[in-house]
Amino acid sequence: MNVETKLISKILDEQNFYIVKKYNISANDFTSHSDVFEFVEKYVREYGQTPDYRTVMEEFDDYEHIGEVADAFPYLCKKLKENRGLNTSFQFLQDEVPKLFNGGKNKNFLKDLYEHVESMYSASKADSYAGSNYAENGDERKKRYKEGKERTAEMIVPAPYVGLNKILQLELTDYLLIQAFSNTGKSWLASHFGVYAWSKGFGVLHYSPELSERQQEARNDTLLGHFNNVQIRTGELENENEYLEFLEDFKDNDTPYVIKTMEHLPNGLTLDTIEADLQQNPDIKVLIIDGFNLITHGNGKLDRNAMTQTSRKLRQIFGKYKVLGIVVHQVNANEERENKKGSDDEDTKERVPKPASILGYSETLAVVQDASHILSFDAVDGLGAIQLVKTRGTGKDAIINLNLNFNLGMIREASPVDYF
């Protein structure tokens, strides 16, 4: 079946012409249907929408429409580019190489041949996006704006705290970093974001490499139902019947919450694993990675360059698969010592929650640079504080105070605060 026909058919059926521009597709990439593609392109430019397939069939007798093309746009665009490369290379070998060789007189023949072949290979790839031409894509922006009006609720992932939602809107494709010192409860915080998003209809993929499946699921049960976490794990719940009834609701649920812990990651957590899991679970909208340092970076070495590349790749993955990425990272010990040293109250000599700055990373600053938003968290004796230390919008340095009882799944905002 002709890939040109399949691609044009899919464009017409899904009324989505602009997506092929993302892959640098132009009429020059078509051999048999360049005139059809040009017609569709001109129609979109003139009327602001993709034509109906019957309109195209009336214009071109040689175009046979294919309904319900299952292949994805990226695959079809790549195949089209590859086919063009094969056709171009055949013509090049047949017509141009003899001229280039020039009967052996061209002393730079190999160099010239290499440059031509490299150029053809690059042109045959659809991996590089064309970008957008702001000067003439008004119709595309209009379409995106109208879609945005209808889909705002689907694109904004709510946080569990009212005060935080007032100053921060977490969107699909965002990179949210939650940073904290060791043993402060940052994993509980990340899990709270996960179960709350799930309760609002967002599919979640949660990597928790330091915990077992049983431990992570018990935490989720505690956060959702406020059952005693220790008693869940020991099988000694005082309100056991209530818990068993609670579990009856977790059957045939359309919204997934996929958990991967140490049992599911025998070779560690890798970027390839993350990407494969997202491909296999298209309903995922929130991705939690509980421990940036627990990812296998590069060749498994915790060197700065490898960690930087991991962070950069994660940012691309969140954008590519349109998920909110939540990454948990531990602030280094030196920063923690300095924090505690400067936070003693002179009268009580008791430490109060004091979130860390964004500068406390000895391994890599890439996570700070790449993150769209950074929440710095600290907790002491049932009191917690979240500070928004980096954001693209307003509210930077605002603090949300929390009352905490992790064992009962209580992570609640202490009191409303006027942030502006």
Description:
This protein has helices spanning 3-13, 18-21, 34-47, 53-59, 73-101, 109-123, 138-155, 162-167, 186-199, 213-225, 229-234, 240-247, 271-280, 304-320, 333-341, 366-370, and strands at 156-157, 170-171, 175-180, 203-208, 257-261, 284-290, 324-330, 373-380, 383-390, 399-405, 410-413. The radius of gyration is 27 Å and the shape is elongated. The protein is 44% helix and 15% strand. It has 420 residues and is of the alpha/beta class. The model is unreliable at 126-130 (pLDDT under 50). The longest helix has 29 residues, at 73-101. The protein has a nine-stranded mixed β-sheet. It has 16 helices and eleven strands. The termini are far apart. It folds into two domains: 3-131; 149-413, P-loop containing nucleotide triphosphate hydrolases (Rossmann fold, 3-Layer(aba) Sandwich), CATH 3.40.50.300.
Number of strands: 11
Strand order of the largest sheet: 5-4-6-7-3-8-9-10-11
Average pLDDT taken over every residue: 84
User: Structural class of the helices, strands and pairings?
Assistant: alpha/beta
Rg over alpha carbons: 27 Å
The major beta sheet can be summarized as:
9 strands, mixed
CATH topology of the largest domain: Rossmann fold
Task: Provide a count of the helices.
Answer: 16
CATH architecture of the largest domain: 3-Layer(aba) Sandwich
Number of domains: 2
What is the terminal separation in angstroms?
60 Å
